[in-house]
Amino acid sequence: MSATPDKTLDCKGLSCPEPVLKTKMTINTMKSGEILEMVATDPGSANDIPAWARRTGNEIVESKQEGGVWTFLIKKS
Amino acid sequence: MAEEKKKRLVMIASKGSMDMAYIPLIVGSTAAAMEMEVAIFFTFYGLDIINKHKYKNLGVAPLANPAAPMPVPNIMGVLPGMTMMATAMMKSWMGKQNVASIPEMVKMCQDVGVRFIGCQMTMDVMGIKKEDLIDGVEIGGAATMLDFAAESDISFLV
């Protein structure tokens, strides 16, 4: 990972819409410029988290998928 | 984006079956998490979604629903217990996918600021009182919904 996360959110096992909701609620508690690492197993997250980020102006710094687990590094705007 | 005028979504929830309850709750909570302004106008059977006596037990009727989760021909849906069976199967599918329950989804919607409006006229028609609904529901009529909807970017009926 290129950036060190300030916070980690585990959404493994959760289905739509919870990964997006929990990501939003966690981002709300963070400061601008901080990085959230979010981990999910819901395949919908692959598209949903980038769509959420575009709409809210937060930046996906890095994303990867390994063995059915998606990891996103999200920088709060 | 965050600095522009917020996008706005309004949904009319008119159905009280479990599958039809999930749609406005999932779309609404997600839209609010995407920083949209969201209102759901609950009317007719849709009021069951926010009725604290009923929302834990919404069902799925197999009758006249060929896509219902039933291992028997659809015509058997008229038999007693069939709605209960289809509901149990749907709940089991939802549980396997770890989908939140209807009361959990309602709570999540409220946590992210989705506005709930109960339709006054249909409440009167169906004998539903404000006390029957969960806390935090506004009561209003078509004009209340349309006032919000007139400035909305997305609107649909469920």
Q: What gap, in angstroms, lies between the N and C termini of chain A?
A: 20 Å
Helix-strand pattern of chain A, N to C?
A: EHEHEE
Largest sheet of chain B: 5 strands, parallel
- CATH fold naming of chain A: Translation Initiation Factor IF3
Query: Spans of chain B with pLDDT under 50 lasting ≥5 residues?
Result: none
CATH superfamily of chain B: DsrEFH-like
> Helix tally of chain B?
5
Instruction: Name the largest protein-protein interface in this structure.
Output: A-B, 18 and 18 residues
Count of discrete alpha- or pi-helical segments spanning 4 or more residues of chain A: 2
The CATH homologous superfamily of chain A is termed: TusA-like domain
Strand fraction of chain A equals 25-35%
Quaternary organisation of the protein chains:
heterodimer
**What is the CATH first-level class name of chain A?**
Alpha Beta
Poorly predicted regions of chain A are none
Biggest sheet statistics of chain A = 4 strands, mixed
Q: What is the percentage of strand-forming residues of chain B? A: 15-25%
CATH architecture of chain A: 2-Layer Sandwich
**Global morphology of chain B:** globular
Indicate the mean pLDDT of chain A.
94
Give the topology.
The complex is a heterodimer of chains A (77) and B (158).
Chain A: E1 7-11, H1 18-28, E2 35-40, H2 45-56, E3 59-66, E4 69-75
Parallel strand pairs in A: 1-2
Antiparallel strand pairs in A: 2-4, 3-4
Chain B: E1 8-13, H1 18-33, E2 37-42, H2 82-96, H3 102-111, E3 115-119, H4 120-126, E4 137-140, H5 142-149, E5 154-157
Parallel strand pairs in B: 1-2, 1-5, 2-3, 3-4
Helix pairs in contact in B: 1-3
Question: What keyword list fits this structure?
Answer:
heterodimer, A: alpha+beta, Translation Initiation Factor IF3, four-stranded mixed beta sheet, 30% helix, globular, B: 158 residues, alpha/beta, Hypothetical Protein Ychn, Chain: A, five-stranded parallel beta sheet, 5 strands
